[in-house]
UniProtKB/TrEMBL annotation:
The lineage of its organism: Eukaryota, Fungi, Dikarya, Ascomycota, Pezizomycotina. It comes from the Eukaryota. Residues 133-164, 256-279 are annotated as: Disordered. Coiled coil: none annotated. Keywords: DNA-directed RNA polymerase, Nucleus, Transcription. Belongs to the RNA polymerase beta chain family. Signal peptide: none annotated. GO terms for biological process: DNA-templated transcription. DNA-dependent RNA polymerase catalyzes the transcription of DNA into RNA using the four ribonucleoside triphosphates as substrates. Specific core component of RNA polymerase III which synthesizes small RNAs, such as 5S rRNA and tRNAs. Residues 136-164 have a biased composition (Low complexity). Residues 9-67 form the RNA polymerase III subunit RPC82-related helix-turn-helix domain. This is DNA-directed RNA polymerase III subunit RPC3. It is found in: Nucleus. One of its GO terms (cellular component) is RNA polymerase III complex.
Length: 668
């Protein structure tokens, strides 16, 4: 896989920060030179053979490198797993998300699996002390240093290592097997076999090559059709090799329903799930690892939930999160593979396509503590401030004037006959008026609109839930109403809502880099397509010299481009038409590399700052100092330590925000 310079440097730095310098030098050679054999790694890294083997062992243990053995020559080739290297950034976020959605016990198992890499169930039970009372055994990095947890979630110490909490939520070995079984059924964990260490792209290429040879010998059209279906089945089997145990567990007790999912979530609040009469015992020799593809699905759900909260309110976003959880129960990955999921997809009915969820199912899975009467309500005339019409009219005139200066479409709000907006035009007693308020409270933020929250009954709760769901049918198309069963059926078109989210992110980036005028010009080009300079100037209400300067700035930033169409064969400038255009797909492909560079700079600055206070961090990490730094340290050194922690939080927070944008543009 070809990666950019900044992506390779970022992955090498993440491996170095988490596992040490030795694995970092090996992965850096693999990223720069591509697939390599052992003698080539000796030469490119300048390390001794035992050191290279030790570094490769750490990388393979944590799924950061692939290896493939040639069947004919028996030569082993090693290759970097770029996606797993980059996902080191997201380990802390994944662990937190598992704790929120599945429970504290599941969170602890996932945390230890991130620390240990792929591991047998027996070894994992031993890491928990054999009876669930001990903490996880530390994993070692390339320098022989012990790490109890990896990741960068903001709680890390000076070396990027997160300390493990004393005690454990795993009560017994049987409890551990139950937790692992649930995580396997939810696809957070997958089974590892000998074929799991090869690059999936290489495996798919070998299968396609084999069936291409068979297709040359097939004579009839039916024989070629059968070979195509057989190849699609082989590709699907190669990809879903880690789901063998999941299918077995699903066959035994069925996939957890929404009701069981709520009980599992109850463990996070200190309410253990009811013990089953039949204890589940898994094969102790089964090897497990984290399934990043399913984790990305949960991360996407969280991002869409935050997007919905920004657009349509907090309470409606909680309803939307419940719909997302139910819709993605059987969804294994964010993006489909055209080689596997494209042709002959009718052969495989995995239940992940065209998923519809009823309103009653959403109500059953929704947290009962959520007050559905907030962020939406019915307001009568008596509850509206009589002077709010003047205020709204004034704000509408100011907004329309600013939009006219910027060349945006839309006009002022049409006033009533006497020049004021009447209460009848604002709200009616016959139709509900959705109102968003800050901090999840009903009424406007300035106190003009007031109404009381009355505890709702069961029927009222269903009706309020339906109103929230209909709010999701906004311009961003968060959800789609598609049936009448169960008080209404709902579906999510992920392509549509993700396209809206990408557009919002791109607009934000363009506005920050080129200003309000640059955003206005890109919106015009996005709406009308390729336009001549004169047409763009007319629509943007800008003079031609000003327009040319701004378009040159946008072109330099990579957001727009120009197509030159000469009127004759002379190709003279004054006889050439210049058509400007905006390509969103190309922008989404180019922006991540710029974001990689920004994240790399943040982590490099953090590394330098840690080196400056190296002595203080070494002192703070002592077992007799942890938890009482302010008491032990002098005011001078404690102030330096506090300033370093603040700077570290800012740099890591900025890095995670950049990763959020990368995920929207590339992964979701």
């Amino acid at each position: 896989m070809i990666v950019s310079k900044h992506a390779a440097e970022l992955c090498a730095l993440l491996v170095n920060d988490t596992f040490g310098e030795l694995p970092s030098r090996v992965i850096e050679a693999l990223l720069q030179r591509g697939p390599s054999r052992m003698p080539q790694l000796f030469e490119r890294t300048g390390l001794h053979p035992p050191q290279v083997r030790h570094g490769l062992a750490v990388l393979i243990q944590h799924n950061l490198a692939y290896y493939n053995v040639n069947k004919d020559t028996k030569v082993t080739t090693y290759e970097a797993n770029v996606h797993s290297c980059y996902n080191i950034l997201r380990i802390g976020r994944i662990v937190d998300l598992v704790g929120q959605q599945y429970g504290e016990a599941e969170q602890e198992v996932v945390r230890n699996l991130f620390s240990l890499g792929y591991v047998q169930i027996a070894d994992l039970a031993q890491a928990f002390g054999g009876h669930g009372g001990g903490a996880a055994a530390p994993a070692t990095n390339g320098n022989g240093e012990a790490h109890t947890e990896v990741g960068m979630n903001g709680n890390s110490n000076g070396n990027g290592v997160v300390s493990n909490k004393p005690g454990s939520t795993i009560q017994s070995v049987f409890h551990l097997h139950e937790v692992i079984g649930r995580l396997i059924q939810f696809e957070i964990l997958e089974v590892v076999d000998a074929e799991s260490f090869a690059n999936p792209e290489t495996v798919y290429a070998e299968i396609e090559q084999e069936y291409t040879k068979k297709a040359t010998t097939a004579k009839s059209l039916k024989a070629k059709e059968d070979l195509g279906r057989e190849k699609a089945g082989m590709l699907r089997a190669a990809r879903d090799r880690g789901k063998v145990l999941k299918r077995k567990l699903d066959a035994e007790d069925g996939f957890p329903s929404s009701k069981k999912r709520k009980l599992v979530n109850g463990e996070a609040n200190g309410t253990p799930a009811p013990s089953s009469t039949k204890r589940r015992v898994l094969d102790s020799s089964t090897v497990l690892r984290i399934n990043y593809e399913k984790c990305l699905v949960d991360l996407r759900n969280d991002r869409l939930g935050r997007f919905a909260a920004d657009v349509i309110g907090h309470t409606t976003s909680e309803v939307y999160r419940a719909l997302l959880r139910l819709s993605t129960t059987k969804l294994s990955r964010c993006k489909e593979d055209s080689k596997i999921d494209g042709a002959y997809s009718d052969m495989f009915d995995d239940g992940a396509k065209d998923v519809t969820i009823t309103t009653l199912e959403i109500l059953e899975s929704l947290d009962p503590s959520i007050n559905l009467a907030t962020d939406i309500g019915r307001v009568g005339k008596s509850s509206v401030d009589p002077h709010i019409g003047d205020h709204l009219l004034q704000m509408a005139v100011i907004s329309s004037t600013e939009d006219a200066e910027l060349g945006l479409q839309g006009g002022p709000v049409k006033p009533s006959r006497n020049g004021h907006i009447t209460d009848d035009e604002l709200y009616s007693d016959d139709e509900p008026a959705p109102i968003k308020a800050s901090n999840g409270q009903n009424g406007s933020s300035n106190g003009h609109v007031k109404f009381e929250n009355v505890p709702s009954t069961g029927e009222q709760r269903v009706e309020l839930l339906r109103r929230h769901l209909f709010l999701c049918e906004s311009k961003h198309r968060f959800a789609r109403y598609c049936g009448t069963l169960g008080e209404g059926q709902w579906a999510i078109d992920f392509d549509v809502v993700m396209e809206a989210l990408r557009q919002v992110e791109l607009d934000s980036i363009i506005e920050q880099m080129t200003g309000r005028r640059g955003l206005r010009l890109t919106r015009i080009l996005r709406q009308f397509g390729r336009l001549d300079e004169k047409v763009v100037a007319d629509k943007a209400l800008m003079k031609k010299p000003t327009l040319q300067g701004k378009m040159a700035e946008l072109q330099k930033s990579g957001f727009v481009d120009v197509q030159e169409v000469p009127r004759d064969n002379n190709r003279v400038a004054n006889r050439t038409m210049f058509f400007w255009y905006y390509d969103a797909d190309r922008t989404c492909r180019q922006l991540p590399d710029r974001l990689y560079k920004m994240m790399l700079r943040c982590l490099q600055v953090l590394e330098v700052e840690r080196h400056k206070v190296k002595d203080i961090l070494e002192f703070v990490h002592r077992t007799d100092v942890k938890g009482k730094e302010e008491e032990v340290m002098t005011p001078e050194y404690y102030n330096k330590y506090s300033k370093h922690l603040e700077l570290e939080r800012k740099l890591l927070g900025h890095t995670m925000k950049l990763d959020d944008i990368v995920a929207v543009l590339r992964d979701y």
